[in-house]
Amino acid sequence: MTLRDRIEQLLFEHRKWVIGIFIAATLFMGYSARNIHIDAGFSKLLPLEHEYMQTFVDHREEFGGANRILIALVAKDGDIFTPEFFDTLRRSTDEVFFIPGVDRPRVQSIFTPNVRFTEVVEDGISGGNVVPDDYQPTPEGLAQVRENILKAGIVGRLVSNDFTGALISAQLLEIDPNTGEPLDYFSVANELEEKIRDVNNAEGVADTHIIGFAKVIGDITEGAGRVAIFFAITLLFTTLAVYIFTRSFRLTLITLSCSVTAVVWQIGLLTLLGYGIDPMGILVPFLIFAIGVSHGVQMVSTVRAEVFEGAKGQAAARTAFRRLLIPGGIALLSDTIGFISILFIKIQVIQEMAITASMGVAVIILTNLILLPVLLSYVTFTDRYWARLARQARSFAPFWNTVVRVTEPRKALVILVVSLALLVFGVLKARDVAIGDLRLGVPELRPDSRYNVDSRAITEKFSIGVDIISVIVESEAEGCIDHEVMSTMDDFSWHMSNVEGVQSIIGLPRIAKVINSGWNEGSLKWRVLPRNSSVLTQSVAYVPTDSGLLNEDCSVMPLMIFTTDHKAKTIERVVSEVKQFRDERGSEKVRFRLATGNVGVMAATNEEVDANQFPILLGVFSAVILLCLITFRSIRAVLCVILPLGLVSLLAYALMSVLGIGLKVSTLPVVALGVGIGVDYGIYIYTRFKEFRDGGEPLQEAFRKTLVITGNGVVFTGLTLAIGTGTWIFSPLQFQADMGTLLTFMFLVNMLGAIILLPALAAWLLPGESRKG
Amino acid sequence: MIDRVRQGGPGIILALLLIGTAFPLVAQDEGDLSTIAPLASESLLLDGAARDGLAVVVGERGHVLVSRDQGRTWDQKQVPTVSLLTAVYLHDGNLGWAVGHDAVILRTRDGGETWDRVHYAPEEERPLLDVWFRDETNGFAIGAYGFFLVTEDGGATWAPQEFAPVEEDDADDFYGGGFDYHLNHLSNPGGDRLFIAAEAGTVYRSDDGGENWESLPSPYEGSFFGSLPLEGDALLLFGLRGHLYRSDDAGETWNLLDTSTTAMLTDGIRLQDGSVVVAGLSGTLLVSRDGGLTFTLIQREDRLGISSILQTKDGGLILVGEGGAHRIEEL
């Protein structure tokens, strides 16, 4: 008695126990899943082990990194110099101070005391707050503020270039200093909406535009929340599809409840392990559900085939269990490997996704290969049901008879030539796939989302960019009064300013030069870094640490490079120029370190994705090849299964390049998953085909029978998975739409590959087959 | 040492060797060539000169740019300095000099194509702020803290000269007798007369080609950054916080003109059509159509500081300053 027989006996002789245990476990998992929460964090999105992110971690405390919010108020009528606009701006500024996590000393607007103007007068330099303490909302008072704004040099930064808008800037702390709790970005985003945008909209004086990481997370979370609708739609369509396939209400219910059980377990396990659902990972339950249904369908169709062949009562379910335990197990194992291979990417959110998804797939092994056959063993089929089914089979028969002709040598050759042409096309196109993001705006959100509209509005009105890569210069203590250090930094700034894609650079040397000129009556002819360090001291002493341009002992000084966009090519060019300058001019005294800022994060992420794309694909493919080798023990068989898979992966790359989707954190896993899940079809088809061949059927007949029994299931599986992922294409979140597009493509085309290319390959590859056919 | 330099010929070589041993740092910097950068024409540029179809502008990081199409396009030249250049003077279409921080002086003899470094003294820690040549051999370079250099060999060698103007009787010698004011700008109405606009409300005049200087009565305690000689003894003097004065007696008495601006005024020019323009920081242009009696303010949208304004042969204007060098067709 084999192990498989023992398991079968154990399960089917204690069916009530099995069902009882599953019900109990599901109740428990469901109970713990009630605490599921959306869990978003900034650090989770960073490839923390990457060189650039080490810089970020080293200096996060002092410089806040990339976590800024900008709120722009734009006057509905005319310019900002009206008492009403000033009231709105002052109130909004005050509100910002009370948003949780805001680093209060770093809040800036024309109303905050850290924004000052200086001017040269006959006896030196005078200065004051831009909005003076004795500001009166009179024409004179407003005219005074206008003057001060000009003197303070904040046009383009805190006041828009055309004076129709003003900006409030704030830094967020990851850990709320008041409570010691990690910051809840979603509530920050909510408060920004409620206390600022909603109030301002009600007032009607100014339009509000808000951008920043907290808002991105807020919008992503909100978009992810709409996932419930997608889930409902998916559930509805899948139910319909399963019903059409099974022609039985009971079978539909059983299949779906097994898959729902898998999802409940997966979410329950997630909570038990202390994870929340990250907006990036919210699609995992969909995948689990879809994978569950597709494997469930295989089980149903096998059971049905057994009954049709004459098996009675439990026997059909037991045979189906025995038949599918190995191929089903292998298929699910390869799915799991697909998910686990993503662990190569050292980004917490992706790793969480890999772990939770592979847990989910492991759960499907239990629910679909154990629970499902046990439940199916209770189902009895009426004659009317068989009649219905027979009608359906008859209507499909011509289709399969056509399909099976691909194994005729000449037709097979046509298929192979077409595939070869697709391969060449794929290779040509796939080379154009860009790493990273290709679109403007925040890549996670749709280009026309409110956030990206806000972002465009702000970059149009103000001279500040939203794309920043900060290079951090580490020196000795008091490095900022060393002429050599400062002039090297200054040369760096100028070098980078000349790089295509760099908009502007803010750093201490530039400010020091302006202040030095200020000490010399504002004359442009003194806009230099003094060689004398005591004179240089005068120029930097007035730059506060909250400017973010230097630390307490000025041994660390960031240079903020604003880029025109965050397209992969731009980032690559900027990073390589920084490295080139670092190699030529950097020294122990002036260490240039890449990089913080949102573009710095993207640079690190892009490099991480680039470095891992081949290890991941190599890992997935070798694992899948190994599994197939173990199962089929034939290299030719492995080629039949793997070649279509390889072609489809290549075409997925080609599709990305055609659609302008970049290879990034959200799309690289898809390619791996697509391979892992795509191989399922091949495994099911080839296993059944082999059984018929081993039973002595000639090739074409073996394929005909395989397709009639398994083919229906495979086509159906492809459609179910495509429905499950296809709904994402309509997601408000761009990365979900991209993932949905790619997964749908991979599922459908892999399905076609398994029923058309696989048999054609078999006709040519398997020894002597073509003659027999 | 400097005396020997003046002898020229072998003396120069000896002097250079001596300077080389005395200031090894200086010798090392000999190789500091400016970098050709795509955006050089938009960098901080401080002064320009146009003569005989040639226009030259100079500024930060040793940027020297040459235009031969009346300022429409600029061609950066590599020069042996990276210091901030503050002023340039063209004698003709070939010969010119530029000065700047670290007391650097550059000379071209081929219309700006190549430049030699003829003076460099970073240890002085004072910049040169203006340069002027009476003819092709004799010239002055002036700068901070009363810095005054003289050349008698076309700029090959330079010697410091004490700047000791005859003090006006009632001068309030606030800084205790040292003539250490920043000498900001030198102008020549023609002939042997010269004016220097200087720091803290001082203005000097020489009537003998720069041998002797006298301090003129000052109408203002703020610094002057330039002067513009007009017809006869008429003269405009301008500086801090929008202060613009006119004298009709070569600087003996002054009248304050209304400018409607508090921006620093930096440079003035008489245009081909006889109108007078004074430029300044924050995109300030003051225009007079009555020979410099009254001015109207033109506020440029970009508000970028203008350091110098020049006119090309074809009547175009070149604004030089924070935004680089840009030609405008009209005011």
From TrEMBL, chain A:
<keyword id="KW-0812">Transmembrane</keyword>
<feature type="transmembrane region" description="Helical">
    <location>
        <begin position="614"/>
        <end position="632"/>
    </location>
</feature>
<dbReference type="InterPro" id="IPR050545">
    <property type="entry name" value="Mycobact_MmpL"/>
</dbReference>
<feature type="transmembrane region" description="Helical">
    <location>
        <begin position="667"/>
        <end position="686"/>
    </location>
</feature>
<feature type="transmembrane region" description="Helical">
    <location>
        <begin position="412"/>
        <end position="430"/>
    </location>
</feature>
<feature type="transmembrane region" description="Helical">
    <location>
        <begin position="357"/>
        <end position="381"/>
    </location>
</feature>
<feature type="transmembrane region" description="Helical">
    <location>
        <begin position="742"/>
        <end position="766"/>
    </location>
</feature>
<keyword id="KW-1133">Transmembrane helix</keyword>
<protein>
    <submittedName>
        <fullName>RND family transporter</fullName>
    </submittedName>
</protein>
<feature type="transmembrane region" description="Helical">
    <location>
        <begin position="282"/>
        <end position="303"/>
    </location>
</feature>
<feature type="transmembrane region" description="Helical">
    <location>
        <begin position="227"/>
        <end position="246"/>
    </location>
</feature>
<dbReference type="Pfam" id="PF03176">
    <property type="entry name" value="MMPL"/>
</dbReference>
<feature type="transmembrane region" description="Helical">
    <location>
        <begin position="253"/>
        <end position="276"/>
    </location>
</feature>
<dbReference type="GO" id="GO:0005886">
    <property type="term" value="C:plasma membrane"/>
</dbReference>
<keyword id="KW-0472">Membrane</keyword>
<feature type="transmembrane region" description="Helical">
    <location>
        <begin position="639"/>
        <end position="661"/>
    </location>
</feature>
<keyword id="KW-1003">Cell membrane</keyword>
<dbReference type="InterPro" id="IPR000731">
    <property type="entry name" value="SSD"/>
</dbReference>
<feature type="transmembrane region" description="Helical">
    <location>
        <begin position="16"/>
        <end position="33"/>
    </location>
</feature>
<feature type="transmembrane region" description="Helical">
    <location>
        <begin position="324"/>
        <end position="345"/>
    </location>
</feature>
<feature type="transmembrane region" description="Helical">
    <location>
        <begin position="707"/>
        <end position="730"/>
    </location>
</feature>
<dbReference type="InterPro" id="IPR004869">
    <property type="entry name" value="MMPL_dom"/>
</dbReference>
Automatic annotation (TrEMBL), chain B:
<protein>
    <recommendedName>
        <fullName>Photosynthesis system II assembly factor Ycf48/Hcf136-like domain-containing protein</fullName>
    </recommendedName>
</protein>
<feature type="domain" description="Photosynthesis system II assembly factor Ycf48/Hcf136-like">
    <location>
        <begin position="125"/>
        <end position="325"/>
    </location>
</feature>
<dbReference type="InterPro" id="IPR015943">
    <property type="entry name" value="WD40/YVTN_repeat-like_dom_sf"/>
</dbReference>
<dbReference type="Pfam" id="PF14870">
    <property type="entry name" value="PSII_BNR"/>
</dbReference>
<dbReference type="InterPro" id="IPR028203">
    <property type="entry name" value="PSII_CF48-like_dom"/>
</dbReference>
<dbReference type="GO" id="GO:0015979">
    <property type="term" value="P:photosynthesis"/>
</dbReference>
<keyword id="KW-0604">Photosystem II</keyword>
<dbReference type="InterPro" id="IPR036278">
    <property type="entry name" value="Sialidase_sf"/>
</dbReference>
<dbReference type="GO" id="GO:0009523">
    <property type="term" value="C:photosystem II"/>
</dbReference>
<feature type="domain" description="Photosynthesis system II assembly factor Ycf48/Hcf136-like">
    <location>
        <begin position="55"/>
        <end position="120"/>
    </location>
</feature>
<keyword id="KW-0602">Photosynthesis</keyword>
